[in-house]
Amino acid sequence: MAGITCYGLSSQSVLGLGSESSKSLLVMKGKQRGIRGFQIKAQVEFVNAEEAKKLVGVEGYAVVDVRDKTQFERAHIKNCYHVPLFIENTDNDIGTIVKRQLHNNFAGLFFGLPFTKANPEFVQSVKSQFSPESKLLLVCQEGLRSAAAAERLERAGYDNIACITSGLQTVKPGTFDSVGSKELQDAGKAGLVTIQGKISAVLGTVLICALLFVTFFPDQAEQILQMAPSS
Prior knowledge:
This protein is an alpha/beta fold. The protein has nine helices and twelve strands. The chain has helices spanning about 10-15, 50-55, 70-75, 95-105, 105-110, 120-125, 145-155, 195-215, 220-225, and strands at about 5, 25-30, 40, 45, 60-65, 75, 80, 85-90, 115-120, 135-140, 160-165, 180. Helix 8 crosses helix 9. Residues about 1-40 have low confidence and may be disordered.
């Protein structure tokens, strides 16, 4: 469960152990609460895919998907809640237009990533659906957005938060019931990178065929080369 950090006391005064210079944190298990004037702070729990499945199926955690709309639509865990940490940036000021064009020519083209901005309503959207006592499993594709979302929700008073380490890209097919045209682990793959392997395979086949042609039909190959315009 969520780890708990105690502040305000040295390890010696709490446990009767350690040196006088040891003023470090005491880590415990449990929920956030105050005890005799010192603070206990909840920590986010990072789990693997199988542990996450147990949190949902056994401990009643609700799944909150914080990815953008495009990745969510490609694949998401069945019956999850979608509260994106970033939303599409449709602003039309000059600076944003230039940034959007640069994005679309690189990250958008090669990786299929939308041009986004931080969702200013993220915390409020979560609050409208879940109380601070709710058990929440935050998921994204690589694990970075869910960790950032967890940090924001921690500050808002949520203390039962878990994230999948390295995100849905580590989830094997069949771990969760999912909805969408792709497997959960492949929902982040889009753009030209998805056909790079196919292009390489085609080019490789063409080169092999050319080599075989030159090897077994050298005369015909020489005639073809002579037909090529010289510079």
